Amino acid sequence: MNAMGRQGQRSGAPTAHHQRQYSDQLFDASSNGRWLQSAGLQHLQSSNANNLPPLQGSRMYWNAAPRGFNGGSGSEYFTDPSTPKNLQTRNGEEAESPSRFSPGLLDLHSFDTELLSEMSVPALYDAPSLYRSVPGRSLDDSDTYLANNKQIGRARGVPDNNLLKSFVADKEKASNVAKIKVVVRKRPLNKKELAKNEEDIITIEPRFSSLTVHETKLKVDLTEYMEKHEFVFDAVLNEEVSNDEVYRETVEPIVPIIFQRTKATCFAYGQTGSGKTYTMKPLPLKASRDILRLMQHTYRNQGFHLFFSFFEIYGGKLFDLLNDRKKLCMREDGKQQVCIVGLQEYKVSDVETIQEFIEKGNATRSTGTTGANEESSRSHAILQLAIKRSADGSESKPPKLVGKLSFIDLAGSERGADTTDNDKQTRIEGAEINKSLLALKECIRALDNDQGHIPFRGSKLTEVLRDSFVGDSRTVMISCISPNSGSCEHTLNTLRYADRVKSLSKGNNSKKDTLSSSTLNLKGSTALPLSSILQHGTTFEDDIGDSWPEQADREDYDIPEEFQEPEKPLWKKNGKVDFYSMSTSDDKVKRANVQTKSKDPPKFETKPSQGDDDLNALLKEEEDLVNAHRKQVEETMDIVKEEMNLLVEADQPGNQLDDYITRLNTILSQKAAGILQLQNRLAQFQRRLKEHNVLVSSSGC
Ligand SMILES: Nc1ncnc2c1ncn2[C@@H]1O[C@H](COP(=O)(O)OP(=O)(O)OP(=O)(O)O)[C@@H](O)[C@H]1O
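Above: the input record for the complex with adenosine-5'-triphosphate. Below: its predicted structure, written as tokens.
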């Protein structure tokens, strides 16, 4: 049975729309080989489209159970799908016809973002609780303020001084909302895991937005030891955190700024069964509620409208979830802007209608069963809330797009290696999913790096999201992790992915060259010692008031010194030792202490053991340094291996993948060169230590 059959596609009567057949891009297997060769991985070349490695999987059967976004709990599903055309609002009125504003050929860009008269971001932003979880708080609490807000209804007029000031202040607040926010959510152990007595290997320190993965490893002699991996993110949410709190931490802060010509994207990433759908489900409805409130209060009578669309990307193809899974086409116009041909967009003005649409869409989504999740999303579902505005307040002309909030429930990042089922369809699904996850990561990196070229064409997902990534955009990534020991490797992969996405997000978006950005990405994957962050003075108190605190500057403790400064002489004839500057803050503290000591006039050490002690301590430091770098290289190798797996499974080369491999190779060679340099230094040091010992013993001490 083909993919479509298995999805139970409906043959609902298509509405009359312009459609253009989209033919999937054919990928050149030879270029697949090229990038593998460039990475020195020719042996993986056989893993191309015609010869994929057997993907294992515990996916047993196809299951078209509805799932996806809705406003309810994880277990709520839509049970009574009706076609959107027949949708009625609660008060019996018919919902706006999709064709009223949707011309059938929906060009995501044809409605140019309107040049709005400058308008303040609602003072909702003033509430610190928007950034920190306060139980029971909702936008309702702000209604009184909003109703009295003098800016209401004035924004279109000539701004007076205060309004202007307020606008500037609000604008600043809006720009304080980081371009990329990475939040991690841990789910509780499930029944299966509890029954198997699986351990919870994740500890969370919410105060420092940090978490530790406790990985059990085996030594060569087969004794067990524990390796700790520490990570720090913008926020880390433990298993007790409610969906309301997740909303407050992630989406609530960006809702007001989509009225400010911002396009925001919120997506969940993680292993299959880690809680992505559970997390994403309630967010769109909560956001719609807040958007409608803002429209009805702050922006009342200002011509704003909310539009709703919901579609999925399955196997690289687009399907309208609100129009009987009608196949959609994507095309680029002359300005390289993406249009989704035939996507139904509905004007909505009440929460009930939105909920019905969400449920309707969820009911239509493609799901399957994986080992970790009986109802696994095998597609990326994209729910978009678009804010549009009628230019002159009248509805004679189509309204223009002002801002957009996209919610993406990504398909599970189950790796080929985890699946035992190697049926072709499953492999194609897996390859497509991995390809898009990889492409998404690349786009986010490129964006945050302000790179001129954003590799949107890496996948359908990124092509579709193109307009959410250009211009003034915000991205919230929620990384979902499973706590059980059996998921340790996946959890580490998810956290490394998240860390690499985050590693470039310092809020300043300064230009960085490709190489250094890649270096940072890779560095970011190395677990950050909490101690070093604390030493940088970042405290919880410092973070309060700053919604999305910037990370401590990683360069301070992550860039190997040998790449920054020329080597200094190690040991001078007068017996005074010059110390290397070290790369970690810990080491810097040590060095500072040692240097303070060495300010005293050097005394001739009569006890050889003292000099030896100093030198031995130094030798130990050198050894530690070499080991640290070796570990870093090993970790980098792990990352490269993981990326390679993804690339192979994604099975789609593309130019950006070539570039990516080249960058990884460069970083690896740099790291290897660094290790070699350190080893030479160590050997040199050992020679000098020997000389020193000879000197000391010949002086008769
Ligand atoms: N934070 C949580 N609290 C309670 N239950 C949760 C939580 N997160 C997930 N679950 C439960 O775990 C199961 C799997 O979650 P979910 O379907 O959201 O995973 P997923 O990451 O979307 O998987 P897939 O990628 O396969 O679609 C569901 O039964 C869900 O209700």
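Notes for the reader.
DSSP finds 21 helices and 17 strands in the chain.
Residues 74, 187-188, 190, 270, 272-278, 370, 373, 375-377, 412, 480 surround adenosine-5'-triphosphate (CB under 6 Å).
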